[in-house]
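ok so for the tutorial part 2 we go from a plain amino acid sequence to predicted structure tokens. step 1 is just haveing the sequence, like this:
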Amino acid sequence: MSTLTENHQQVSTSPQGRPPSFSEAKNRRQKVRAAGMNPDYWYPVEYDRALKPGQVIEVKFWKTSIALYRGQNGQLVALKNRCAHRQLKLSLGQVEGDRLVCCYHGWGYNQEGKVVDIPHDLFDKPMPVCKIGIYPVKVRYGLIWIFPGDSTLADKRQIPDIPDLEGKDRWACVPLDFTWKAHHSMIIDNVSDFTHAYLHRQYRPFTDAKLTKCEEQGDRVFVSYDTKVGTGKVSGLFVDRKRVNTNSMKLCYEYPYQWSNTDSKIKHWCFILPIDERTTRTFFLFYFDALKIPFTQVRIPQWLMTLVLKIANPLLIKPLLSQDGIAVEAEQQGYETHFNAPIIELNPAVHLFQLLTIRKWEEHLAKTCSK
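step 2 — the prediction. this is what the tokens look like for a chain of 371 residues:
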């Protein structure tokens, strides 16, 4: 029986005419489009530079609200975003010293999530013992990362090591981010599936892609393409083809992250922050070791690369990625209308991406149910 016929027979009839939940889903596409991401990993939530001492913001991981603040001493703290008293969001409050203070009654929380100050009358009652949950926080690659899952695993599951972005000889990198109204699995499908070259025909980041490898190894899906990389009219002028083989690219969905590598000279990482079922913030880190001054063979030195990337990002890279954003948001809208349509997916890599996402979400649900 063909995949098309098989999946057509497995369509669900969700109530209210809405896409099915994970438990209601009857086929792979419905499951992956309803799956969350396993919280037992580090996820970027904001730029380090964006949060100054004395500031607090709200960030979200899969519908969970988190109050992230930086004390006057510079330390970052992430708390469950609710006051133990009347359940207001603590992100509505303010930072006083190293404490986060609720805007309603002024209850103050320290960096361990404990209530340490109540400025009003206690009515002859002892100071209540209140504590809300906290999340491990780190800063790396200019991003603030939070571990939203089992905190005992935070030291075992590390933020990905990117040696090229660390040390005195690190490559220049100017991250970009987008918040798209689309499920996180659609973005993972997009960034590693090169069958959508037509979408980028104006910028030509890759063309004539032919899949040469598609293999799952544990919690990773490795993909390789023979493809022509960086052939845009403007961007292609910066690619040093004498030093770099731009005829192939390796990619990997290293759950829950994604990366690519072109001849160890042109690289990127994609970090996903799933906000809810149809909203995802995506951080892109592009870094290069092989750009040249156009119409010459002179390499752009690394000390100048940061400036080059600050100029190139809004002119070349951001418009290119914005095309992906338009596409995945349209796909989200299409799925919500046609979630019962047959699956017609040709790229085997996409099948493996989706199966991995489903499996990791099922592992999280099984762990949650066993508690």
